[in-house]
Amino acid sequence: METAGQTGLFGAAGAAGRSIAAALGAAGRPYSVIGRGRAALQASFGTDPNAEIVTWNPEDPASIAAAAAGLQTAIYLVGVPYHQFAAHPPLMQKTLDGLIAAGVQRLILIGTVYPYGRPQSRPVTESHPREPHTFKGKMRLAQEDLVLDAHGHNGLETLVLRLPDFYGPGVEHSFLHGVFEGAARGTRAQMIGPVDVPHEFVFIPDLGPVVETLTRTPQAFGRVLHLAGAGTITQREVAERAYALCNRTPKLTVAGKPMLRALGLFNPMLRELVEMHYLLTDPVVLDDTALQTLIGPIRKTSYEEGIVQSLAAARAAVRQAA
Questions:
Q1: Is 104 within 8 Å of 147 (Cβ atoms)?
Q2: How many CB atoms lie within 10 A of CB 129?
Q3: Environment class of residue 296 by beta-carbon count within 10 Å: exposed (0-12), middle (13-18) or buried (19+)?
Q4: Is 211 in contact with 75 (CB distance < 8 Å)?
């Protein structure tokens, strides 16, 4: 391990950014949160004296370089709307150019399982073929290749950390969000099925300490690593536990692939989920032995505790909205 310099979180406003920022803040490390709008960043990070709020325009090379000035490590969390995945590779290239211009030494891309395509083994290690059969997978693959190819050039070292689906308190962009919302409100949970296939989820607060450690681990760079969840669980099991905590019987409305197609005629987000539906019928389950060999045992929140915390946040949100 080493003492790390200033870290910048590009696209910090999401759940992953908040988790990483919390870990950096807890370690007493200065960091920058970088996003398009100051108000959202101020709301999430304004109370942390370690946080510097920086705005940028990811389409403008000068703005990217200015946002990266003085950073040792950049963590890339930039999301795009689900129907605009073609933007991933060009945004990544512009960011790489800006980081190099600013003299940034390290880049960590928080990636997904999309580049693998359908799993050919279970669990999936980092040596699994990357053979995406979906458009979104191909765009994520192109993004990853840009990052991996940049390693060792222009003074930059790079790392791709792949995650499965995630969940956690206040995480709205999760397959499980409808479960916690439904249980908290006493209404039907809106879910995407099948809901009886074992699936892997990362509890998003567990991500931050891992990334904070990786920023101080030089030997992590120049490779791909996985962070796996705390085993597998079915969506139905999550629903049963969440509703039981509220002394309620689960009430589920499950949309399968045909219903997604039909609903997609009116909802662009649901339409875009159709091609990724294989992740629910034939999920990718990750092996993170390589990561744990590198940095040691990783604290993973059990599904039992993760459900308790996620439900508590959903109930608080319901009370606040009342």
A1: no
A2: 11
A3: exposed
A4: yes
Candidates 281, 274, 278; CA nearest to 82 is 274
- Residues 139-153 have pLDDT tens digits of 999 999 999 999 999
CA 13, CA 9: separation in Å to the nearest integer? 9
Work out the average pLDDT over 60-70.
95
Instruction: Provide the phi-psi class of 222: left if phi over 0, else alpha when psi is between -120 and 50, else beta.
Output: left
Q: Is 291 exposed, middle or buried (0-12, 13-18, 19+ CB in 10 A)?
A: buried
Q: Does domain 7-167+201-229+284-301 have CATH number 3.40.50.720?
A: yes
Residue type, 10: F
Give the separation between CA 230 and CA 233, rounded to whole angstroms: 9
Cα separation of 12 and 45, whole Å? 9
**Looking up tokens 């200015």, which residue turns up?**
66
Question: Tens digits of per-residue pLDDT, 185-201?
Answer: 999 999 998 999 999 99
Rounded to whole angstroms, the Cα distance separating 226 from 164 reads 9
Residue 193, SS3 per DSSP: coil
To which H or E segment does residue 61 belong?
Answer: helix 61-68
Structure tokens at 79: 């999301």
| Every domain of the chain and the residues it spans | 7-167+201-229+284-301, 177-197+232-282+304-316
